[in-house]
Amino acid sequence: MNLSFLRVSIWVYLAIFFLYLLGPLVIMSVTAFNSSAFPRMTPWECLTFQWFGELFQDQRILNGIKNSLIIGAGTVVLSVAMGLAGALMLTQIWPKLRATYYTIIIAPILIPGVVLGISTLVFWDRINRMLGLGADSVLSNGIFLTVIGQSTFIASYCMLVLVARLQRYDVALTEAALDLGATHAQAFRKILLPFMRPAIASAAVLAFLASFENYNTTTFTFGEYPTLTIELAQKVRYGITPSISALAFIIVALTVFFALLNEAKLKRQELVAAARKNATVEELAGKIKLPSFFAGNVAAMLVVIFAAATITVVGTATAYSPDQCIANVKEQKQLEADQRIQELRKQREERRKQREADEAEQGETQSAPKPSNNSGFGNVFAPNALSGDEDESNAEPQPSTNGGFGGAFDPNSLKTDE
Amino acid sequence: MSAGVGVDLENLWIRFGDFVAVRDANVNINGGDFFSFLGPSGCGKTTILRAVSGFLDPSEGKVLIGGNDMRGIGPNKRPTALIFQNLALFPLMKVWENITFSMEIKGASAKERRKRADELLDMIALPGQGDKLPSELSGGQRQRVAIARALCAEPDVLLLDEPLSALDLKLRQHMRTELREIQQRVGITFIYITHDQGEALTMSDNIAVMRAGVIDQIADGKTIYNDPNTAFAASFVGENNVFRGKIKQVMGNEAMIATNRSGDLVARISTANQGKLKEGDDAMMFIRPEAFAIAPDGATGDHFVTARVNHEEFEGNVFNIFTEGEGGKEIKVSIPNHGQSFQDHTGQNITLEYEAQNAVLVPAGELAAE
Ligand SMILES: Nc1ncnc2c1ncn2[C@@H]1O[C@H](COP(=O)(O)OP(=O)(O)OP(=O)(O)O)[C@@H](O)[C@H]1O
Ligand SMILES: [Mg+2]
User: Chunked in runs of 10, what are the mean pLDDT values of chain A (418 residues)?
Assistant: First the structure.
């Protein structure tokens, strides 16, 4: 009894936890496929891929992605290099200084990104002026500044990752290499670096992700090269469209895909290692019988399923046309709107009649409509205020309502307006 | 032996802060010798080896290899190869890559390296195992790969830091003979570090016995065993019964000591101390368990000790008799087993006899911890 209760509550806890964790992502992803002009899951209108199309036609988003990738690459190179240098330094330094050194080098993580951004901007601007360079020099270039600014703290993250691995390094390995005639550079390149490779890869991924999602620091340094986060933030200021959901969906999907791919790879290495251990010398000398890619590798299967699903979806998307459905919804909306307008008119009519009747009764008291009336009027619109129907009913005479009301939320239209 | 490259330590001091790890070591190692440093844990053996291979700078004195002062010459420039206490095989490289790392450094082609690796793998009796990773080998195999890797660098001096300590007894004994064979085949100088006196005695041409940073004695195994310089050397190498006393009378190479519990006993003064030990000095007399024999009852004199048998052990090649002499003095006796029917003495009083030649007298000093 008690045990099963415990088990149930653990499951409930897990469910709530995952709901909390993943729920928003799932919902956002789903809204990317709803034709509703505002990202929402209900009411479900039509399955559509139009938001993806819109996303890929948005020059600012595309440009933002491009800048983010360039800056990400730069930050990865700089941060991993600095992180590795910092980590090596930590193991070489005089033990008494180690704690102090560690604190100093970790400090950038604790400093608000905003401060780092401003200080980067101010510092390099000073340098730029000291060198007598113009406003278009490399030192005031948005990409340069952003890479430098982000690396100030991302390098610390990298160092933490690298130090963890470096602590497991046996210095005797370097000594052995030296003893066998290697120079310090050779020992570093042939022994230490290969040992650090997994950690360097982790640090690089971490650095890239941290750079990609950074906003606080970048917002001061981007200059003429806005990153994706900057573009998104600017876009959201004018209203949110499902094409942002589409972007979110793509990012989530890519993350899941690479996570699975990585898992599959690790699992595969494990299996190969296990197979090698079991194999006799002859087997190894002859042909290594690798386990088939899928055997006992759930992640690998998931990757394949994932890829298949992607292909299917893309295939469907190119073939599928939600026009009919959208037309239907449009028609229905129009009908609803018409109906509501009719009702409205009727109400107005009634009210007018009532007023006339009142006037007739009370004679002179012919003032403005009472506040209570007014609120009654507002109620008609309240429940749907967000949905944009308001616009529609206002724009009632136009036949191409749909385009019109969608446009209100489309940043593209804003941009072209500018 | 042959014309190998010798190693000399001259007035070598190594300090870590205030701590003296090696104190005024003077050692001459002949080229082509198998030389061992023997001492308990923490006595500075590894420290000496690191000074020879160039990872540590001496605080004072110098290291000469082949007569050349090694000061300022880094480990990668010295004609030495070190086999580390923990082997330090490169975990991410295959066995053949490990073995031929020194060739890779010099830019040899993969084909050349492969060929050399196969030769060396044959030599260490691991043919066809070149494609494994070190983690896929057993302890003894890893051991041999480490030796092959060091030999591949074609050093003039091979330094081995307790390479057998991680192995089980059988493998250790097997590897002893194998190491000795390899050394004789390649003919280079081996400097071997161990805290196992059995290893040192079986393999070495010469042994240095170390105690807390000080070298007590340098000699071949037989001399160290039979003619120790100090109480430490006598008690550390092999088993020994110790009798403390004051020298009563010196008679040429022999002397008589007055012990508290076992009466007056006669022993040979160890070679290094002849002429130095004088009447009235505190001294220690050492008698190996196998140097005792059971004498007929009632015999007395200065070659006899009486004792009561506590218990006996049969060890295969010997019978061990643990006895208690006068005043509770513990004495161990080993009687070789040559198939005689052995009579159990437990609880009896027996008389033990030895020859003065087989008992050594050294100045009183620090004993090795059990
Ligand atoms: N880098 C160092 N800093 C300070 N003290 C050290 C250092 N290296 C060694 N020592 C000290 O020097 C002494 C000798 O150490 P060493 O490693 O040479 O011992 P060892 O004889 O090889 O012992 P073992 O048989 O346990 O390997 C030890 O007391 C050790 O604590
Ligand atoms: Mg040691």
Answer: 83 92 85 77 75 82 89 94 91 82 86 88 86 76 88 91 90 92 92 93 92 88 85 81 83 86 84 70 47 65 81 75 75 86 90 86 55 44 42 40 41 41
Dist. CA B78 → ligand 2 center (Å): 21
Strands B264-269 and B254-259: antiparallel
Query: Do residues B231 and B362 make contact, with C-beta atoms less than 8 angstroms apart?
Result: yes
Query: Model pTM greater than 0.90?
Result: no
Residue A254 burial class via C-beta count within 10 angstroms: exposed 0-12, middle 13-18, buried 19 and up: exposed
The residue ranges of every structural domain in chain A are: 47-237, 241-325, 358-384+403-407
Cβ(B47) to ligand 1 under 6 A?
yes
**Residue B215, Cβ neighbours under 10 Å: how many?**
22
For residue B183, the SS3 value is: helix
| Cα–chain center distance at A136 | 31
Q: Which three-class secondary structure state does DSSP give residue B295?
A: strand
The reply to whether residue A281 touches residue B129, judged by beta carbons under 8 angstroms, is yes
Distance, CA B42 to ligand 2 centroid (Å)? 7
B211 lines ligand 1 (CB under 6 A): no
* Strands (DSSP E) found in B128-253: 157-161, 189-194, 206-211, 214-219, 241-251
Cis peptide before A43 (omega within 30 of 0): yes
The nearest CA of chain A is from the CA of B256 a distance in Å of 53
Residues of A with Cβ-Cβ distance to B95 under 8 angstroms: none
Prediction ipTM score? 0.82
Instruction: Specify the CATH number for A47-237; select among 1.10.510.10, 1.10.3720.10, 3.40.718.10, 1.20.1200.10.
Output: 1.10.3720.10
**A276: which chain B residues are within 8 Å (Cβ-Cβ)?**
132-133, 136
Report d(CA B244, CA B185) in Å as an integer: 46
Residue nearest to atom 4 of ligand 1 (CA): B16
Q: How far is the CA of B46 from the centre of ligand 1 (A)?
A: 7
With beta carbons less than 8 A apart as the criterion, state whether B349 and B214 touch: no
A196 vs B contacts (CB less than 8 Å):
none
| Closest-CA residue of chain A to B148 | A180
Burial class (CB in 10 A: 0-12, 13-18, 19+), A285: middle
